[in-house]
Automatic annotation (TrEMBL):
Annotated Polar residues bias: 118-131
GO molecular function: carboxypeptidase activity
Keywords: Carboxypeptidase, Hydrolase, Protease
UniProt xrefs under Gene3D superfamilies: 3.30.1380.10
Protein name: D-alanyl-D-alanine carboxypeptidase family protein
Species whose genome carries this gene: Paenibacillus mangrovi
Compositional bias segments (type: Low complexity): 96-106
Bias-annotated ranges (Basic and acidic residues): 47-94
InterPro entries: DD-CPase-like (IPR052179), VanY-like_core_dom (IPR003709), VanY/YodJ_core_dom (IPR058193), Zn_M74/Hedgehog-like (IPR009045)
GO biological process: proteolysis
Region (Disordered): 36-141
Residue ranges of domain D-alanyl-D-alanine carboxypeptidase-like core in the record: 196-324
CDD domains: LD-carboxypeptidase
Length: 350
C-alpha cells in the first residue's frame, strides 16, 4: 500500500512536471509567433511604400523622357518649317475657336472708321491717321510742335494725301509724285509745263471746285502747281540773293521742304491774274470764296492769317493744299493749321 502511494506521488510529480514544461515551452512559442508577425507586416508595408515610390519615380522619369523626346521633335519640326509643329497638326477646340472669335471681335471693334483721306502723314496708315486726329483734337489746336530748319526729319511716306511738309519735315531727296496729271482748269499762262500739274486726286477735286465757283459767278485760275526740287532750289536761291536768307524763309521754302513738290498744292488767283500770289489777293472776291468753300472740296488755306509763328510763313490766301474733305473741314472749322491738327503725332523715317 505504501509502495502504491509513493508510486502515485511520483507519477503525479512527473505528470505535473511534464505539464509545467509543456506550458513553459508553449507560451514563448505563441508569443514568439506574435512578435515575429508584427515586424513582418511592418516590413511588408515598408516594401509596398518603397515599391510605390519606385513606380512613381519610374513613371515621372518616363514622362520626362517622353516630354524631352516630344520637345526635340517639335524643335526639329520648327527648324524645318519656321513654325511650331503644334500649329500644323493640332485641331482647334471649341474653346480656342471662341477665343479666336472674341479676339477678332475686339480687333474689329478697335478698327477706326474709314475716311476719304488716303492715310496718315508719312506712314500711309489710316489707323495712325485716326489716332493722330484724336490726339491732336484733344489739344484744342494748341499741341506742342516744332517747325524750324534747325531740326530736320524726312517723312516716311511722301505719297500720303495728308503728308505734313514744312520747315521741320521734308520730302526725300529728289522725290517726284507718281501720279501727276494736268487738271482741266484755266491757268494764268498758256504753256503746258510742270507747274500746271497736280496729283490725280487733287486735280479732280480742283476741277470740281473751279466748276462750283463758276456756278457762283467766281472765275478762278491756277498760278503754280507742282514744282520739282531742282526748280524750288532755283527759286529759293534767287529770293535769298534778292532779300537775304531770313526774309526769304518767311515766304519761300527751302529745297525739299516745299509743299508744291508734293503735287498736292496750287496757288490760285482770279481768271484775270490780278494780285496773283500777292498780298492784295486777300481782298478779292475770289479769295473770300475760297476761304468759305475750299474745304468742301478737300482744300485748306495752308498759311492762314495770324498763324505765321506756327506755319513759319506769311499769310498766303492763294496757297491751297489738298488734304481730303475730312481734315480740310476740321482744320477750317477750328481755325487751326495742319501743324496743330497733327500735333506731335507725325511719324517719320528718321
Amino acid at each position: 500500500m505504501r509502495k502504491y502511494v509513493v508510486t502515485s506521488i511520483v507519477a503525479v510529480i512527473m505528470v505535473g512536471g511534464a505539464i509545467w514544461a509543456w506550458d513553459k515551452n508553449r507560451t514563448p512559442a505563441a508569443e514568439g509567433a506574435v512578435v515575429e508577425k508584427t515586424p513582418a507586416l511592418t516590413q511588408q508595408k515598408s516594401n509596398q511604400e518603397k515599391e510605390a515610390v519606385s513606380v512613381k519615380d519610374n513613371a515621372s522619369e518616363t514622362a520626362k523622357k517622353d516630354h524631352d523626346a516630344e520637345s526635340e521633335d517639335t524643335k526639329s519640326e520648327t527648324g524645318k518649317n519656321d513654325e511650331p509643329a503644334a500649329q500644323k497638326v493640332e485641331k482647334p477646340t471649341s474653346e480656342k475657336t471662341n477665343s479666336t472669335k472674341n479676339t477678332d471681335a475686339k480687333a474689329t471693334a478697335k478698327k477706326p472708321e474709314k475716311s476719304d483721306t488716303a492715310s496718315h502723314p508719312a506712314t500711309g496708315s489710316k489707323t495712325n491717321n485716326e489716332a493722330s486726329s484724336k490726339k491732336s483734337s484733344k489739344t484744342g489746336g494748341n499741341a506742342e510742335f516744332v517747325n524750324t530748319y534747325s531740326v530736320e526729319h524726312v517723312v516716311a511716306n511722301p505719297e500720303s494725301v495728308d503728308v505734313l511738309v514744312n520747315k521741320t519735315y521734308r520730302l526725300p531727296s529728289g522725290y517726284v509724285p507718281p501720279d501727276l496729271v494736268y487738271p482741266n482748269v484755266p491757268f494764268t499762262f498758256s504753256e503746258k509745263v510742270d507747274k500746271r500739274k497736280m496729283r490725280k486726286d487733287a486735280a479732280i477735286a480742283l476741277e470740281e471746285m473751279f466748276e462750283a465757283a463758276e456756278e457762283d459767278g467766281i472765275s478762278l485760275a491756277g498760278v503754280s502747281g507742282y514744282r520739282s526740287e531742282s526748280r524750288q532750289t532755283t527759286l529759293y536761291n534767287n529770293y535769298v540773293k534778292k532779300d537775304g536768307v531770313n526774309a526769304a524763309d518767311t515766304y519761300s521754302a527751302r529745297p525739299g521742304h516745299s509743299e508744291h513738290q508734293t503735287g498736292l498744292t496750287i496757288d490760285v488767283s482770279g481768271s484775270s491774274g490780278k494780285c496773283a500770289a500777292e498780298s492784295c489777293f486777300a481782298g478779292t472776291k475770289e479769295a473770300k470764296w475760297l476761304a468759305k468753300h475750299a474745304s468742301e472740296y478737300g482744300f485748306i488755306i495752308r498759311y492762314p492769317e495770324g498763324k505765321e509763328s506756327i506755319t513759319g510763313y506769311k499769310y498766303e490766301p492763294w496757297h491751297l493744299r489738298y488734304v481730303g474733305t475730312k481734315i480740310a473741314q476740321e482744320v477750317t472749322s477750328r481755325s487751326i493749321t495742319l501743324e496743330q491738327y497733327f500735333g506731335k503725332a507725325v511719324p517719320v523715317s528718321k
